[in-house]
Amino acid sequence: MTGASNVLIPSVDLLAYVFFVVLSIGLVSLLMSKKFNISYIPLFIFFGILVGPLLGLLNRTLAHELFSYIRVFGLVMILFTEGHTLSWRMLKRNFGTIITLDTLGLLITALIAALFFSWIFDVPLVVGFLFGAIVGATDPATLIPLFRQYHVREDIETIIVTESIFNDPLGIVLTSVAVALLVPEASSAKVLEGIAGYVGIYPAAVLFFFYQMFMSIAIGVALGMVGYSILKRARVMNFPEVIIFSLALAFGGFLLGEFAQASGYLVATVTGIVLGNHKVFFRDDPGTVKRIMRAVEREVHFNESLATIFTIFIFTLLGASLDPTIITSHLLPGLAVALGLMLIARPLATLPILRWRSFKEYLFIALEGPRGVVPAALASFPLTLGITYNNPQLVQWGEIILSATIITVLASVIVETLWVPFLRKRLLEVRSIEKEMRAAGYRLSS
């Protein structure tokens, strides 16, 4: 089971072996995380690299193929589950910060990253913009379990996690814009090119982004209402039925979103938000509310465990699928770009939120923006385009983008997860329950 042979249809025994290795890595990493009080995300990646490219215990090609599927299923499950736990009260309270990070902040991050990449690798700025768009989105799959582990304050967690969830569509749109500028004949640029024929490429990108956002939110709200209505009318829905129903709702929402050329991930998230905040959105009698709350708690408890398993698979398979030559070929300039993104681009891009947050809170948010699943999934896209359209120049640029993206993902995930407990202790006030209630606007009797 070593080597890098092409395995298109793996045997049952081979899949069982992969599951055994990955779950074993997950168990060891979780135990080490508790023992030494460190983040388990870098451990998943490290052990994935160890059993994949270094020791050859996992076939790298197979790991890559499985990753391409599991990242989709896993991210849907992680985002749907996290949607349940996002407080509508917190979302409303921090709306200005979140929307600023997801629009202006993300665009500034991509542009500064583009300048760094173009300067360090001596390539045209449009190539740098393609890299900046690919690494623009932060990663909810990394942040969600991490903030749960270290008990990061709810308002700060809501801001950073919601930013990560909502900036995926914009990162994809920015990538589509960069591809349209660099390779207008690419199929992925057809939708934008069609709109751009009437209004121009940049207005088309804005229109396409708002379409994705509003359509995704509309479908998610509608599915959440349908889900609540079914739970309300189903007088008897036991544990297995509730779980199956919630999974069908999550993946059905993802499919509807993708079919509508919107964001399936955002649909799943919004559906989870509606169900998780049903007491706010739907005014029913106490008996109905209590019954639905029990059903939602059952599915959330199960889905959280499932999301943890998917997190293990996502990051372990990411490590196992890496080609060491990709990392070593541009290691030093790639690290320079990664550090520029983490320590310069992200802090500069988040400066506008100082109007809402204290300096220490701003600094925590600015230093917590790891790149992960979405950039890793898009990393090979420019190289694939170069090969598809027989463009040697794009192939060369694509190889550089692939290397720099993987290095950036690894560096940001490792560094920005390891310093979470230190930053939390130094920058965030640990609020008491009374302070949290006062901050939320509740009156306490004397």
Plain-language structure description:
By secondary structure, this protein is an all-alpha fold. The chain is built from 22 helices and no strands. α5 (95-121) crosses α6 (125-134) and α5 runs antiparallel to α16 (331-349). It starts with 11 loop residues before the first helix and ends in a 7-residue tail after the last helix. 48% of the residues are buried. Residues 1-7 and 432-446 have low confidence and may be disordered. One of its GO terms (cellular component) is plasma membrane.
Offer a few descriptive terms.
446 residues; mainly alpha; Na+/H+ antiporter like fold; 79% helix; disordered N terminus; Na+/solute_symporter_sf; cell membrane; antiporter activity; membrane
Summarize this structure briefly:
This protein is mainly alpha-helical and 446 residues long. It has a single domain (18-429), classed as Up-down Bundle (Na+/H+ antiporter like fold).
